[in-house]
Amino acid sequence: MSKSIAFFNNKGGVSKTTTCFNLGWKLAERGHRVVMVDADPQCNLTGMVLDLSSANALDTFYDSNPGRNLRDALDPAFTSRPVPLKPVDCVAVEGRSNLYLVPGHVGLAEYEVSLGIAQQLSESLQALKNLPGSMRFLFDITAASLNAEYVLIDLSPGLGSMNQNLVMTSNYFAIPASPDVFSVMAMESLARVLPRWARWAKSASELETLENADYPFPRMSLKLLGTIVQRYRLRSGSPTQAFMGYFELLDEAVDDLLLPALEKVDLTLSRETYADAGLEGGLRLGSVSDFNTLIATSQQAKKPVFALTQQDVGQGGVVWENQEESISAFNQTFDEMALRVEKLTKT
Predict the structure, then answer these.
(1) Which of 215, 226, 102 is nearest to 165 (CA)?
(2) Is this model's pTM higher than 0.85 or not?
(3) How are beta strands 150-155 and 3-7 bridged, if at all?
(4) Containing domain of residue 329, as a range?
(5) I want to staple 312 with a disulfide (CB 3.0 to 4.6 A). Which of 50, 159, 269, 301 is the partner?
(6) What's the CA gap between 262 and 224, in Å, rounded?
């Protein structure tokens, strides 16, 4: 059975997509079969894998690959068509064996209202009973078709019904964040919202209507993997003083607010398990400094920063030596992060 990990924060601009792509690549590099799911209607993860540089590139892909995206794969459930959900014909990621993508669709947001109604009224409205469990069912059968070990889900920012479902039906979740005041506020918000979502998911899983649906709502097994702090500047190999202040505030928000709130609703692993996996303060899976100019090269090359070569960068001499050093450091960061994920998800 695959292990699903949702990358979620109700704050935008914290590199959820970049983290999902980089960590997915690294896990595949380490020998795991990985499916990445683009569940953000903005389709940024899809753009990191497919060439979307030409006008109407997404529409062209959809027209040439009917059913080969998340929205269309879910369509039978959301439009009550009398056909079963089928595994998505995933896109193999070029340059990295064992790594696959379920492309996103800008129209996925159209399902938000239907799902929200279903999650509130599915006990009384039989026609809606298949919706709450449909996404987890689709991910499971898709992963099984590829014999994948991990399903990584890139989510949009926000606290709508779609994210509520995708987070609560996952096995694990990670919270990307930036060292700024808004991410601190987001941790405080998540400490209030996630326990409420957990109580909903537990209640939903006990409803006979959803338990007997064609796509049963799963029993909640969600656990926090940790936080990932990124997008900060370095000076002499360490975050600058201004960023360090926000590191401390984030750690306090996680340790004093988020972690206790999640422990009360059984959304955490044991503190000993986190310690054994080597998590840093604030339950940090890892800290990733700003990619600077390498991010543009990464996007153009369709590969993670840590996989860039001198040919990709197109530089020589001292410039390349400095960039090669940065690339090596990022490779070590994501290798350590992948190792921690392996330890925390080991069953």
Answers:
(1) 215
(2) yes
(3) parallel
(4) 3-344
(5) 301
(6) 8
pLDDT for 10: 87
* Number of domains the chain contains: 1
> At residue 229, what are phi and psi to the nearest 5 degrees?
-95, 130
Separation of alpha carbons 142 and 151, rounded Å: 9
CA distances (Å), origin 61, targets 47, 99, 105, 127, 156: 11, 19, 10, 32, 21
Helix (H) or strand (E) holding 70: helix 70-78
81-117: burial string, b at 16+ Cβ within 10 Å, e else: eeeebebbebbebeebebbbbbbbbbebbebbeebbe
CA-to-CA dists, residue 227 to 53, 100, 284, angstroms: 32, 24, 5
Task: Say if residue 264 is exposed, middle or buried (CB neighbours under 10 Å; 0-12, 13-18, 19+).
Answer: exposed
- Residue showing tokens 């896990």: 27
Phi, psi of 187 (to 5 degrees): -60, -40
* Over residues 1-12, mean pLDDT: 92
Q: Which two tokens mark 93?
A: 């990621």
Number of Cα atoms under 13 Å in the Cβ half of residue 241 = 0
Say which residues have a Cβ less than 8 Å from residue 50's Cβ, sequence separation at least 6: 57, 61, 91, 101, 103
CATH code for the domain in which residue 240 is found: 3.40.50.300
Percent of the chain past pLDDT 90, that is, above it, reads 70
- Segment holding 154, helix H or strand E: strand 150-155
Structure tokens at 26: 């690294």
**Whole-angstrom Cα distance, residue 132 to residue 204?**
9
**φ, ψ for residue 196 (rounded to 5)?**
-65, -45
Q: Quick: pLDDT tens for 187-201.
A: 999 999 999 999 999
